[in-house]
User: Fold this.
Amino acid sequence: MANRLKNARSPYLLAHAQDPVDWYPFGGEAFQKAQAEGKPIFLSVGYYACHWCHVMHRESFQDEEVAALLNAHFVPVKVDREERPDVDAAYMRALVSLTGQGGWPMSLFLTPEGKPFFGGTYFPKEDRMGLPGFRRVLLAVAEAWREKREGILQEAEHLTQALWRSLNPPPGPVPKEAEEEALAHLVQAFDPEWGGFLPAPKFPQGTLLLYLLARAWEGEERARALLPKTLRAMALGGLYDQVGGGFHRYSVDRFWRVPHFEKMLYDNALLARVYLGAYKVFGDPLFLRVARETLDWLLSMQAKEGGFYTALDADSEGEEGRYYTWTEAELAEALGEDFPLARRYFALGEDLGGRSVLTAWGEAEVARELGEAFAPWRERVRQKLLATRRRRMPPALDDKVLADWSALAVRALAEGGRLLGEGRYLEAARKGAHFLLQTMRKEGLLRHAWRGGSLGEEAFLSDQSFTALALLELYTATGEWPYLAQAQVLAEAAWTAFVGGKASPKLPLPAGEVEEATLPSGESALAEAFFRLGAIFQGDYVERAEGLLETRALWLSRYPQALPGALLAKSLLERGTELALPLPCPMAQAAKETFLPLTQVIVGPPGALPALEGREAGRAYVCRRGVCALPVQDWGEVLREVRQV
Assistant:
């Protein structure tokens, strides 16, 4: 018999709709029931592509005995962290405060008012791997709630108050030394042998890599030293799908060899931009190939309506990574005469119970041996393996569309279309932008989640700010003003609706993100959008961007390396430039094809925009914080000006 999740939009929640657990969605009905019956809430937060979420589902949530305990003693609440990032952020901070670590599935016990008092992540049904069994945990918490309720309520209140104090610091001046301290920390944490940052597991950290790339473009030698080894190791290791393109979620080891096999839209949208820019900065053809293949993977995730699907699961045929791994016999059958050389190229090793995660550690050796024949040989091998793999049962697709993640994909494809001159990427970006603006906007705000014609009600700052940046990139790529106008509208709507509201009034805990390990915060992204809009329209946009960064000042002073989105916005505000190119201008095409991470390009007829007022067609005007260099007509001089700090 279906539970209350049967009408959910999220595929993750729908997967639990037939559980014997009497799940409630997060909201007033669950809290009212808990308060009326005096029961604690069991909050389970996960997502569709999460391997350990599936394991706990099979072991416990589909088990009649465990379900009976949950239903008798608790009000069970299930949340898709991707659909409700505010709930996830609020309670993940609480979990880290309680246990010292976080992760998914998140398993928290709350008072009837929603205040946390005990939790963990994955619990096996019975004691195993040094973890207490979930059945034992449920019985112990239920007993404690009966016998020690007053003490539990006091501790939950103390934790809640502490979280409100710590996560809502007053704004202050942005520390000048934040970038220097972040770089020093990253240099110390760098893995000189395998790239990336220790300890393992290693995540690709697209936002951090984009910040380091901007610094490398500026000529910062420490950033330049960190990037090539990291990007090559990520691209040649098992983190990257050597057959289908795109990156898995993270590597369990320091060697980038064995991944967790989920493929997330946001990772690949960010990393496509990283590898595009890295190719422009370092000239490594590997980076260009990976950028193209990752952009192509983004295209494969685009729905016919225009939005982008969220993720591919890690599991297929009941086994994590089955779709992506190979035995030697399977490779030999698929590749025929190409197998002996391919075996050296992929540097096979039995990583997962006799099956191999494909790496490309043998690329340099095989490329030297084949010379000009290497690229067509590799593509032939890839197509053979793709043909074989497509006959396997694929991982499940999380087919909901999230506005902020789709905006990241739109921005990546627009930038790819611009830098590579690829019309198909630009067209996909246009289609994605149209879907966001026409289908996911309601009453002036983009709503966060859509699936199968159903649009959710929640709207978040990241939805508006990420989309504004995507539209600004589309304007840069096409010169078409409607994108610019819509970016301005969305940024203004974000300012009005969200700035100053640090937490949702519906939540008992503060919902703001501190770290930007996965994505830039909505505040950092809006600060970047305001810098770019200020370069075009002037006004008070730069002052607003500075105010947004000041709300992050405490965190920037304590651990700046954890806020790369804020560091990138700080770089733009302090050293960014505007490049005005009144049309017609022979340098406009060169500007489209050039990687300029800290520059906003403005094109249009003279006088059509504030940044083009009093400007002469055919010349280039480089300005920094209102101070402009003399106009020039040589592109080489433009490049010298935008880099001059």
